[in-house]
Design goal:
Length: 251
């Protein structure tokens, strides 16, 4: 399992070509060799690929606008082929699908054919969760509805949000073993009675259990993400996470 950088954490520093270049360079210097493209500026897929290649960073997966995935599928596929990223990520289903089983069913009806089209092109559509997907509808988790209804899609679980959804993270990873090539490693802590995101292995998640489940299920890339770093430097948070994971997984 290779440790990667989810660049959403560093989104404020990826909005121009110059800043993106500096950010990828800094991630490479920390030790990251793969990355996820998320919330970067309009700098173009060719520039993104060239900069990543310059620093020896492989682009694995994106978060891409769901409307573009649905309505401009051929171009989205081509864009990912240019970047060398084989996973086209939906960060969350659009708001109009959420909150009821009928909405989840509409989402599946709309996106299952797209997942099939993307798979036929040699790539994967991959769904990233938050907490709302773990609402029960007539005794069935919304997340299970999505994954059962979209067999051609992959799952990119976010460890923080799985925990926030009230589900045992390691157990849920095992439930979908073989469909989780990419996972978001994000830790879950408590401060002042409120839940917070922390650098990986600085919070309360059961990391030994998560590592074991990922290994058993064949996960390839563990992408470090910390949406909110509060008063801490996000680059330093990314370095702490990388160093913690390197010690635990490789040493």
């Amino acid at each position: 399992m290779i440790i990667g950088a989810q660049l959403y954490t560093l989104r404020d520093f990826t909005q121009t070509i110059k800043d993106f270049d500096t950010t990828v360079k800094r991630c490479a210097e920390m030790g990251y060799t793969v990355a996820q493209i998320s919330k970067v500026g309009a700098i173009g897929e060719k520039n993104i690929r060239a900069i990543a290649d310059k620093y020896g960073v492989k682009l694995v997966v994106t978060h891409t606008d769901p409307a573009r995935i649905l309505h401009d599928t051929p171009y989205v596929i081509e864009e990912h082929q240019v970047m060398g990223a084989n996973y086209i990520g939906i960060g969350a289903m659009p708001m109009h699908y959420r909150g009821c089983s009928a909405g989840f069913e509409r989402f599946i009806e709309d996106y299952a054919p797209v997942a099939r089209q993307i798979k036929e092109a040699g790539l994967f559509l991959v769904y990233h969760n938050h907490a709302f997907e773990f609402e029960l509808f007539d005794g069935k988790l919304g997340m299970d509805m999505i994954l059962e209804g979209m067999p051609d899609a992959q799952f990119m679980p976010d460890t923080f949000w799985v925990q926030a959804g009230g589900v045992d993270v390691a157990e849920y990873l095992r439930r979908y073993a073989g469909r989780i090539d990419c996972v978001h490693f994000k830790d879950f802590g408590i401060k002042g009675g409120e839940r917070i995101m922390t650098p990986v292995m600085e919070g309360n998640l059961n990391w030994p259990g998560i590592f074991a489940a990922c290994k058993e299920g064949g996960t390839k890339w563990a992408l470090v993400e910390q949406d909110t770093c509060y008063d801490d430097d996000p680059f330093e948070c990314m370095k702490i996470s990388y160093d913690n994971l390197r010690r635990e997984l490789y040493e």
